[in-house]
Structures are given as structure tokens and as C-alpha cells.
Design a protein that fits this description.
The complex is a heterodimer. By secondary structure, chain A is of the alpha/beta class. Helices cover 41% and strands 9% of the residues of chain A. In chain A, helix 4 packs across helix 6. The longest helix of chain A is centred in the middle third of the chain and has 24 residues.
């Protein structure tokens, strides 16, 4: 092995892949039944980069040669950068050797489009096939579905990969047309739709025949870039909701645009990455998937943007003061989950604890509830509760004043000048 | 106030619970270790671990707790956290003194404390599943040194055994002086003698040929995937606290 050459390729092709934020290695159920190498189940983050993101998979491009010219992408055709390509065997060796040392949970393989969609997809599938069949590798494999790839190849991909994803890139079709004129949305949706139906079919089959092979057990995901085009949060979340509902996606990732290229269609270089907005979108996404919120409760035509100062659950609560206070010793789980400052685990603990005795403030604190937020919205076993008739806006001010948000400090530096 | 001294084993702890009920003790403190001369106004009892008595307490617990509940108790004790015996004994007494199953009674301080302990232990176990870094030795064994906050090695067996079924591996807890060794069939506990040799120099000499290359590649990969424009050191440190760095290939 030419260590120097491999190192150079790895640097180029890892660097080019890092803007794909999907990092999940969970949701699969591949066991190590053949005395081979590895398994994929709950997902482990093996390390964290200095930007605080998790490193779970060996995330690389097979090549950064690309025939497309998408404005937001470092690997665009007209960008003057070093190009490289791995051979199938090189990717296999790296994956196996990293995995054996417990560096990673598996492989995330994407690629620039060389020649055409099927050629690229075929090469990705070949890596996965080799890992599974020749090396008895049962670790996690995430493959990109290349837009425009044929159904036969997508089917084969599903047999070897745990998860597949197509990046929608832009939240709306108009955004895509503007920045990626070579791509079209239908090409992205076709493989997604094919896989959705195939996954449903294979799951049915698996119920009948236990021996039926796994088919993309960790499902599909996608990614949209935030802040490169002027879509509102309402458009972003409604599009996410549409894909969750219609394509059974496991995850939609929101990637704050990192300005890497100068282009008049894009935010200027050195524009700050919209990290707060990205964070709020993920919070909203969680509310939709786990907390029983409908997308219209979070954003709608009157509230097309998420409040950057406070999280979307608190924002919903102060817009809907008529729903509070909630008696946490009586309310059902769904309602407790809507209280700001109470998360999934705390809510379940409250339900457990109140079977024995009424729950008071001290116990709520112990259970892990953020009482400083929740106190405005609940009553519990105590004579103390919020008696003032506060408006939603009052509460927002109180909570902001009482909390040291990591985001507020930027606005405060301005105030301090006076 | 009585102080009970026990030998640190789970059976010993259960025996102590037996003594508490047999002697009808009320205010009790349990400590691990050897019998020491007593301070004034303090009564000290040496608990002699007795399998029969421990077994009877366990049988009683089985009637009132789920299997998972007993497992949690065992894990909480095995973690060897300082001075947490009293929370465990408190929990057991609460179990015996209440008619229903109290596992979900999070309003009770002992139940809550056990739940916190379990959470800490689980997190440490999960960290070890993530932070173990194997180094391939010449004899094809994959070796890793760790220093977990709590005693979690026994909890790691199942994960590593099913994951790395086709390679020999050692995970060694330097702090507690023992390790796990998997020989392609079974795992066993081992202890290594590092005293005579200069550890690091010898280990590098024992590396397989490609070990250094892959360590180098991994470090490079780790640097390449970082996005400088998004630097967030606070978050970075929250995820990998400094005390773990010395065994992490990418952070050395």
C-alpha cells in the first residue's frame, strides 16, 4: 500500500464529503450471525470533531470528479480543486481496518457523478457488495442514491446497505433550479419512491419468511441546505413534513450553508453559518416526529419563521397560553410533552412517579425537569404556582432574562457599548 | 447510629441488609473495607458475608422487583462508586417496606438516586463502547487500554464479543488493573504485569506492520472532516472530556 498516496486521497475525499451532515449509525438491526466482523444496531459516536459534530462513520466520496456544476458544492465541475478517486478495494480496506480498531461504526459512501448516474451507482454498490460478501462485514453501510440511477441498481443497493439517502439539496424546486441547473427534482424523487415501495414490500416479506434478506433496514434519509436560498422556515418544514409523510423517511437533515464558493447567486464568502436557525429547525423536526406536534402548529402563514431567541416548543406555548396551566399530576402524556422544559424522559418519569404519590417541585427538579421554564406552565403538588396573570410575551422576557443562552451573547455585546 | 463494615461484594451487601432486619437496626451506615477501631459513641458491626443469608435477601427482592430491576441494582453496586452503598441499602429497604413494586416511584429519593447511578454507569459504558481504540499487535491481537470512571468492563463483554467475533482482542482497565481477553471463543478476565517493561516503547515494538499507517490515516481523517467555520470547542469538550484523550488515537 502506498501510504502517502492513500493519505492524500483520504484527505481530499473526506474533506469533500464533510458537508453531508448525516451521521446516524442507528436504526439498523444487522446482527453478527456469521462469525464475521461487526454488527449494526444502536449507533455509536466514536469521536467528535472540534466543531462538535460526531464522527460515527467513515464518510468519504468515492471520487470528487463531477460532471455537474451545482453552485453550493465544493466539488462542482468548474471549481479549481484537486481531484482524486478511490478504487473499490481501497475503500474496502480502509473501512475494514478502521472498523477493526473501533474507530467507526461503518461506511458512509457518496460520490461525485462521473460519466453518468448508473456508472456511479454501480461503483458504490460494488463497494458495499464486496464488504458484505467477501469480508463478512456486518457494520453499518450508508450509500447515497445517485439521482437518476436505475431501479435494478437501487434494488441491489438496498440488499447491501443499511440506509440509503438522496439529498434534496434545496427545500424547494425553485431553489434547486437556481443553484443546480443540471439537477432535477424528479430524478431525486424517483429512486426515493422506488426504495420506499421496495422497503414496504420487503418488510412484509420478512414478516412471512424470517430468512428473507434484510432490505435497507435503517430506511432512507435526506438533506436540505439551509440559508443558501431564501426559503422561509415554513417552506423548509412543510417540505420536510411532506417527505416524512409520503416517503417514510427516517430523517431529514438540515445543513446550514457553509460559504465555500464565491457566486453571485449565493451568500457571500465569510457569511456566518446559520447555526442557530439550523438548531431551531432540528428542534422543530423533533417536535413533529416525537412530540405529536403538527407542522402547522410550529410554523404557519402567520408565523412563517421560527423564533431564533427561544425554542419552538416554548414559542408554541406562549402563543397558546389558553392550553395552560397543565396539572402534571393529572394531564395525559401528550399534554405533559407539550410543556416547555419537560422532555420525553422526564415526562415518562412523571407518569411513573405520580402513580405512587403526587409530584411536587423538588421531585420535578430531581427528575430532570427545567423548572425555571416549566414553572410558568404547570401546577403540581404544591401551594406554590405562578399566580400572576402573565402574557406570553412577559414569560418570554422572564425566561430570556433568567437563562444564559449561548446564542444571546452576540446581541449583548452590542448593548454593552452604551 | 450503627456502622456496618462489609467486604465490598454484592453478597456482602445483601448480607448486611439481612443483619439490618434481623437486628432491627434503624439508623445505619454501610461502609466498605476492613474493621477499624471505633470512634466514640459509635457502634460498629463487622458483616461476615454469608451466601445463605444473601440468597434469602435476593429471593425476597425477586418477589418484589422485576428481573431488570434486580439487574440494575447489581450494576449500580458493581460500578464501585464511592459511598453509594447507602443509597443501595436505602433502596432495598424501601422495596421491602412497601407492598407494591416501587421501581417507577421516582418521587422517592432512593429510587431516584439508583436511577441516577444507573444513568451515569450506562453513559460510561457507552463511552467505552465508543472510545476504545484497538491497536493491532504482531500476533494479530487487538489491544486497547482504558481508564473508565466506574467499573464497567463486565458490562462491555456482550457488545465487544458480538461485534469483534473474528479477531482476538484485549480491553485493559489500567486504573483497576484487570482486563478482558477474547480468544475467538470466549472472554476471560486477565491481569497483565507491566512493571518490568517500559510500556509505551514495548507496545510500539509489538505493533503489527500496518498499525502505524492506519493510526496515521485515522488522525488525518479526523482533521479533514472538521469544518473550521463551525468551530465549537465547548461542545467538543462536552462530548469528549479531556480525561479520555490520552487513550484516543486521534487526540494524542
Amino acid at each position: 500500500m502506498d501510504a502517502e498516496r492513500i493519505t492524500e486521497k483520504l484527505n481530499i475525499l473526506a474533506d469533500a464529503a464533510k458537508y453531508d451532515v448525516s451521521c446516524a449509525s442507528s436504526g439498523s438491526k444487522r446482527k453478527n450471525e456469521n462469525k464475521g466482523l461487526g454488527n449494526a444496531s444502536n449507533g455509536i459516536c466514536h469521536s467528535y470533531t472540534e466543531d462538535g459534530r460526531c464522527v460515527s462513520l467513515l464518510k468519504i466520496l468515492l471520487t470528487n470528479h463531477c460532471i455537474f456544476d451545482c453552485a453550493y458544492c465544493v466539488s462542482r465541475k468548474n471549481n479549481d480543486i484537486k481531484r482524486a478517486a478511490f478504487t473499490v478495494q481501497e475503500v474496502v480496506d480502509l473501512t475494514i481496518n478502521f472498523y477493526r480498531r473501533n474507530y467507526i461504526e461503518g461506511l458512509f459512501l457518496s460520490s461525485g457523478i462521473f460519466k453518468d448516474a448508473d456508472h456511479t451507482m454501480e461503483r458504490l454498490v460494488r463497494v458495499a457488495k464486496k464488504l458484505r460478501t467477501e469480508h463478512k462485514f456486518n457494520g453499518y453501510i450508508h450509500l447515497k442514491s445517485i439521482p437518476g440511477a436505475s431501479n435494478e441498481l437501487m434494488h441491489e443497493a438496498g440488499l447491501y446497505a443499511d440506509r440509503l439517502s438522496v439529498n434534496l439539496e434545496m427545500p424547494t424546486e425553485a431553489g434547486l433550479k437556481l443553484l443546480a441547473p443540471d439537477k432535477n427534482r424528479q430524478d431525486m424523487i424517483n429512486p426515493m419512491n422506488f426504495l420506499k415501495n421496495e422497503i414496504i414490500l420487503r418488510t412484509e416479506e420478512k414478516k412471512l419468511f424470517k430468512k428473507a434478506p434484510l432490505f435497507a433496514p435503517a430506511g432512507q434519509s435526506t438533506q436540505v441546505i439551509i440559508g443558501a436560498t431564501p426559503e422561509s422556515d415554513q417552506q423548509v418544514l412543510q417540505s420536510a413534513n411532506y417527505f416524512y409523510k409520503n416517503f417514510n423517511l427516517k430523517r431529514v437533515y438540515y445543513s446550514g450553508y457553509v460559504p465555500v464558493l464565491a457566486d453571485s447567486r449565493l451568500p457571500a464568502l465569510h457569511t456566518a453559518v446559520p447555526m442557530v436557525r439550523e438548531n431551531r429547525l432540528y428542534q422543530a423536526d423533533w417536535l413533529m416526529r416525537f412530540y405529536g406536534f403538527h407542522v402547522n402548529e410550529i410554523v404557519n402563514s402567520e408565523q412563517p419563521l421560527l423564533d431564533l431567541d427561544i425554542d419552538p416548543k416554548l414559542a408554541w406555548a406562549i402563543r397558546n397560553m389558553q392550553a395552560f396551566p397543565v396539572d402534571i399530576n393529572k394531564a395525559d402524556l401528550q399534554m405533559i410533552l407539550r410543556v416547555p422544559g419537560i422532555g420525553m424522559l422526564s415526562a415518562q418519569k412523571i407518569i411513573g412517579a405520580r402513580k405512587f404519590a403526587g409530584v411536587g417541585w423538588e421531585q420535578l427538579k430531581k427528575i430532570g425537569v427545567a423548572v425555571n421554564r416549566a414553572r410558568y406552565f404547570i401546577v403540581c403538588k404544591s401551594n406554590e404556582f405562578e399566580r400572576r396573570d402573565l402574557t406570553g410575551n412577559n414569560i418570554k422576557q422572564f425566561i430570556l432574562a433568567g437563562s444564559q443562552s449561548k446564542y444571546i451573547k452576540h446581541t449583548q455585546t452590542q448593548l454593552n457599548l452604551f | 447510629m450503627y456502622t456496618l463494615v462489609y467486604d465490598g461484594t454484592f453478597e456482602g451487601l445483601l448480607t448486611a441488609v439481612f443483619e439490618i432486619y434481623e437486628r432491627k437496626l434503624f439508623h445505619v451506615k454501610l461502609i466498605k473495607g476492613q474493621w477499624r477501631s471505633s470512634a466514640m459513641f459509635e457502634e460498629i458491626l463487622q458483616v461476615i458475608t454469608d451466601e445463605d443469608r444473601a440468597g434469602r435477601v435476593l429471593k425476597g427482592l425477586r418477589k418484589k422487583l422485576s428481573a431488570a430491576g434486580i439487574q440494575r441494582l447489581y450494576i449500580a453496586h458493581m460500578a464501585e462508586m464511592e459511598n453509594e452503598e447507602n443509597a443501595i441499602v436505602g433502596f432495598i429497604r424501601y422495596v421491602f417496606d412497601t407492598d407494591q413494586n416501587v421501581e417507577e416511584d421516582y418521587g422517592n429519593k432512593y429510587v431516584m438516586r439508583i436511577s441516577e447511578i444507573i444513568k451515569m454507569v450506562r453513559r460510561e459504558k457507552h463511552r467505552m463502547e465508543a472510545f476504545v481504540r484497538f491497536q493491532k499487535l504482531k500476533d494479530e491481537t487487538f489491544y486497547s487500554a482504558v481508564e473508565p470512571d466506574f467499573n464497567v468492563l463486565p458490562l462491555l463483554i456482550r457488545h465487544f464479543k458480538s461485534r469483534y467475533a473474528d479477531q482476538k482482542w484485549i480491553i485493559y482497565d489500567i486504573k483497576r488493573g484487570y482486563g478482558l481477553y477474547y480468544d475467538l471463543h470466549d472472554t476471560q478476565y486477565i491481569s497483565l504485569d507491566f512493571s518490568e517493561v517500559d510500556k509505551s516503547a514495548n507496545l510500539i515494538a509489538a505493533f503489527s506492520e500496518d498499525e502505524c499507517i492506519y493510526q496515521h490515516l485515522w488522525k488525518n481523517y479526523f482533521t479533514s472532516v472538521n469544518i473550521v467555520a463551525r468551530k465549537n470547542n465547548k461542545l467538543h469538550l462536552r462530548h469528549i472530556p479531556r480525561r479520555y484523550w490520552k487513550h484516543l488515537t486521534e487526540k494524542i
